[in-house]
Amino acid sequence: MTDKSMSLIEHFNELRKRIILIFIVFILSAAIMLFFTKQVYLWLISDLGVENKLAVLGPTEIVSVYFLIAGIVAIAITIPFAAWQIWLFIAPALTEKERRITLSYIPAIFLLFIAGIVFGYLVVFPNILHFLLNMNDGMFHVFFTTDRYFHFMINVVLPFGILFELPVIVVFLTNLGILTPVRMRKMRRIAYFVLIVIGVVLSPPDFVSDTVMSIPLLLLYEICVTVASITYRRKERRLRAAEKQLSNSVD
Fold it and tell me: What does DSSP assign to residue 92?
């Protein structure tokens, strides 16, 4: 009983150590990014034009914008390190082959997150912003505040960083046997409907924007089906090889 309790305490201490390291990397990344916030800020608002400079409603809002930009960039930097720390925590419970497979997920998680952010920022966000600005049609004086502008940007862009992680999740669930390419193909119609609804909700209410949003999501689902098929075939080959090796050893 004592050994089990000590083992559990050791696991919690190990987990706490990993979380503290992740937090330290996040804080350091955010602190370093504070020195480059102005350059990032000017780049992010470059498409607005000189006449649409952002405004602040108080001195504290300037500080909040600095921390907001630095924090978002720090999250992107911390993601691969956090994934590596999680891998180090679970690695002792895995076989050598499982360690190699799960370790390969880390760069994929980071690259897919960045790809989703880039897609959201370069494709989705400008379409939504321009559509909303065009609705003005000279009726209103357009006045942006930094707080609302960046929160709007994050609410539009960040979900795509999360959605683009789907291929990694599919591979993981396929290796666990929870998901199969056959099930994904059977769910295709429902999945298409859900993804189109997501695309319509996240985009302005016009056909072009809905299409621009929905098609990449549908292609992402097909990529997930392909990835699941490749993963499933590899898993089946590994199982057959293991069964053959076991059969030969018995003989």
Answer: G
